[in-house]
Amino acid sequence: AMARTWSPLAALFLAVVVAALALASYGLKNADRVEEVADASDTQALAGQGYLNWLRHSAKIHGGSQKAAKDFMDVDAPSKNMDWGKMNAAGKVLVKIRRNIGRERAAISRLEKLMKNRMGKKKQPEALRVNVGSIGVRGARGPYGKRGHRGARGPRGPRGVTGPKGDLGRTGPRGPRGRKGLQGPKGRRGRAGPTGRTGNRGEPGPTGPQGREGSRGYRGNAGRQGRQGRNGMQGGGGPAGAPGYRGHTGTRGPPGVPGKILKPPPPPPPRYHLRGQIRNSVSGAIWRRGVTVSAVSMSGVTVSSTNTGSGVYDLPRLTPGRWKIRVRGSGICNFEDQIVLGRGDARFNINVSPSLGGNQARMVLTWGASPRDLDSHMRSPNGCVTYYGRRHGCSGVSLDRDVTNGFGPETVTIHVRRPGIYHFRVHNYSRRSHNLMSRGLANQRARVTFYVGCRRHVFICGRDGNVNPRTHYWNVFTFNGATGQVRRWH
């Protein structure tokens, strides 16, 4: 029974002893901490308590005004360097110290009560006896603390005034050579250069094969009928003889000459009209000044003539055959051309050249419906070529008209003749892709009328000059600008 009773008591006693040892250890630690806090806080508590008491005393004396207390502090305070911020901080420290000391005292008081209850009236250990006295006198000022950390960088100041321009520095060393740039795009095709001068005439080539037989020529006009001869004189009759004996029948004589049969007169030939327009070869406009148009037979007889000022003419009573057409009038060079009329009315447009001065010349190119486009090329003595691509680029020469739909006229005028040789030729622009140009030009009877002043020179393709089928050019004539001499181009 005692064993069973002892066991709970022993356990209780052991628990009390363990708790006492733990509390004793905790009390020793807290006692040491209280002493450290008290020692460290004495100076601050003294300073804080003194300043608070002094502040309260000052406020009482001067009516409770902080400003009055500050003024009183400036006169009566023991330290002139004290400011309000430090005084407020000291007060806060004092309140915190008192709160901590109160907590420690409460802990020590609870520990003493616990020990008294567990240990009875035994003497308490010295380590647990802590006496907190009153705040002592303020100690001496301690040494300065360590230098604080460097503050944050301030805001950037305003930009200063730009200084004077410095001296020019020396030229730096030459940099390395850059890489080769990319090749640029292909440029546009340049204009064609002027035609080169005619080369020297080569040696004559071997004789070519015999050409084809030419076409049959036109039928000539019928010759005039010869006059009828006169009848001979009748002889006189002789005297009648005596009747003779009947002779033998003689042989039959030759047949007599047959008598003449009179033919009826031939019917008159048919008569037709020749009509057309009269145009200015330089501008292509209708010539409306008064002119005379005549149709002259090959024997020189004027069959029909008309005067017109409307630019349109009509020649009646013309028979089929070859005729000369002449135009005369003021302000133009005399015009003459040959045409062949068939059966039926026909149209023939006339291109007249306005009058020229003695130092001027003009080329008028005309042709048929095909080729559609023939181009005049005039090369001046200085090598400059006037054509459709350079109509007014050569000095003293101009291309007045460029026709691209057949017939013409295409006109080139030399306004001022220069000393030297002019070369004129015709290019078949329409048929440049094949070698039938010479035959086409000859069949269409391309014609160049060259006026020196108003003196006419006519050149017909196939008869004058020479045609080169390979280059499609008809070389027509050369002209000496100094002497006025005109020659066929051989």
Name some characteristics of this structure.
alpha+beta, 19 strands, 4 helices, single chain, six-stranded antiparallel β-sheet, 23% helix, five-stranded antiparallel β-sheet, 490 residues
Detail the topology: elements first, then pairings.
Blueprint lengths: L1 H60 L4 H11 L7 H36 L152 E9 L10 E7 L4 E7 L3 E7 L2 E9 L5 E7 L4 E2 L2 E3 L8 E6 L7 E6 L5 E2 L10 E3 L10 E5 L6 E8 L8 H7 L3 E6 L2 E6 L5 E3 L4 E8 L5 E3 L2
Parallel strand pairs: 1-7, 1-8
Antiparallel strand pairs: 1-4, 2-3, 2-5, 5-6, 9-13, 9-15, 10-11, 10-14, 12-13, 14-18, 15-16, 17-18, 18-19
Helix pairs in contact: 1-2, 1-3
The secondary-structure element order is: HHHEEEEEEEEEEEEEEHEEEEE
- What is the straight-line distance between the termini? 171 Å
Radius of gyration: 73 Å
Helical proportion, percent range = 10-25%
Low-pLDDT regions: 1-6, 30-49, 58-80, 121-132, 433-438
Shape: rod-shaped
Annotation field: number of helices: 4
Structural class: alpha+beta
Q: Provide the β-strand percentage band.
A: 15-25%
Count of β-strands: 19
Biggest β-sheet strands, sense, barrel: 6 strands, antiparallel
**Could you tell me the mean pLDDT?**
76
